[in-house]
Amino acid sequence: xxxxxxxxxxxxxHMLTRKVTxxxxxxxxxxxxxxxxxxxxxxxxDGVTPRCISCTFCEQTCPGTxxxxxxxxxxxxxxxxxxxxxxxxxxxxRPGSQTxxxxxxxxxxxxxxxxxxxxxxxxxxxxxxxxxxxVLARMASRNGVWLSQTFAVASYYDQLGPGAPxxxxxxxxxxxxxxxxxxxxxxxxGFAAGDPADIGAYGAAGGFRATVEQFASMTPAExxxxxxxxxxxxxxxxGYLTGAKWREALEAEAPRKYVICNASEGDLDSYKDxxxxxxxxxxxxxxxxxxxxxxxxxxxxxxxxxxxARAVERLExxxxxxxxxxxxxxxxxxxxxxxxxxxxxxxxxxxxxxxTALLETIEGRRPMPRVRPPxxxxxxxxxxxxxxxxxxxxxxxxxxxxxxxxxxQQIGAEHAPGTRLFALSxxxxxxGLYEAPMNWSLKKLAEAAGGLTADARAALIGAxxxxxxxxxxxxxxxxxxxxxxxGGNLSSGTIRVIGDGTCIVQLARECLSWSASQACGKxxxxxxxxxxxxxxxxxxxxxxxxxxxxxLAQELAHDIADGSLCGLGxxxxxxxxxxxxxxxxxxxxxxxxxxxxxxGRCALK
Length: 605
Ligand code: SF4
Hints:
Layout: H1 2-16, H2 57-61, E1 69-72, E2 81-84, H3 121-124, H4 133-143, H5 147-156, E3 177-179, H6 199-204, H7 209-217, H8 220-230, H9 242-251, E4 258-263, H10 272-279, H11 281-295, E5 299-305, H12 309-324, E6 340-346, H13 355-362, E7 386-390, H14 391-403, H15 405-409, E8 419-426, E9 432-437, H16 442-448, E10 458-461, E11 467-469, H17 480-485, E12 494-498, H18 504-518, H19 524-527, H20 529-541, H21 547-563, H22 567-572, H23 574-582, H24 584-588
Parallel strand pairs: 3-9, 4-5, 4-7, 5-6, 8-12
Antiparallel strand pairs: 1-2, 8-9, 10-11, 10-12
Bound molecules: iron/sulfur cluster.
């Protein structure tokens, strides 16, 4: 009887534990949306000892929950050392013990088994197809771990690694992408009909000519000066002066320098970078070449989310064509300049688009922003001078090279020359992507898009890290500084015009909720502050808020903005703060039992 009860107890306890495997290889699990697919433990200079401080991070990250880390005391002055406890097969070998090439396991034969423990399967980045059930069974048996755990890790395996295929983008962008009348097509002008990777067509339209000619006729310092005169500012969000960044990188003494194209386009409603890369990849390649030549870099990386599958494909085809043409991977005739470009497709994560988090990811770590200074132009990738530029910034460079800095300076606003791509949506007649001078107002831009609808009552610019503006501000210029003065941020240039049917409070909440879910976790104000703030805003949205909640939300939002390590935390609270600034009555309408939402769209009708 006792034996029977014990048996039942064992059966029930197994029924209640979390299942860690699926029917491998027919069924595969999926990693969480925010996974970067990168599980790495780097080694010390001896090439054997892991750089491990027993932080237990790998324990938490392992998809199969197969790692158990225990630590033992190290001698004074040394770091804690790592002792793979209960999960030896999937953990790195202990310092001092025999190392094992994972390849030793990849045999389905019945020969003698290797004597030592293997390294982390997930960190090894071998070909997923090699991990047959028989190989996995062999590994599990030799190392004394559950077969279910090896299968669990293997079932995620094809999603691991920097080039892991993420989900492909199902959404299509609006067909309309036009340069407004009277505006020079600085960025959209390179869009050729036909195959975007046809280098002959791009060259026939003047592509690469001006840039390569400048290499022969100008010094790098002169080109940096030219870009400084143009007044070009980064189109990714920060709006930093491109020429100033280039000068820093040019003046830095270093054995290697890098140019990185940041094509990680995480902002809500934004698709401009994808449109550029899919329709005119050569413009971006040409822009990268110009930047590389100016600062003395020989290597470039395009950092792009793998969900942009079509953009990746066209970019790679364009790079191959440029290589064939002798523009990449070999000295360009008459200039001695040699440059190569690698495309790094990564799973999507909003924080990964922050320029220093991006560098961390390329170096094999989690996408967490670095503390600055030093800035990447002095100390970037692997501690070397690095220029990180947004796709749109790079795509504007060929026009400047061909037409001159002073011509570019004549377009747009005094402190923000040039054109900008605006992704216009919501309460307008023809939503789409519009290229317009940076001194145009929303009113003027909307006229080019067929006009605002009658119920347009607000606009959300640069979501989720930007802010709302009221109709009274529809005629201010859409440049970095004018938008910053409203408390917002132009960010990647998205503009959602809000009609009567949308609740501002709910929309501010959605932006906050999304940003909170994307915090990388490095700093407390963003990681925890946004969650507490969301609880307060949820109370307001649900009709359970008080006047004190409004004041508390405002105070906490300011604290988050002041204390966050990077721009993502500062941006997370902008929709709420600008919403409270321009639409305070709408927030008050949600307060207390008598609260009512005028839009009729949110929970409080
Ligand atoms: S603000 Fe802090 S938690 Fe948020 S993304 Fe930046 S570093 Fe990470």
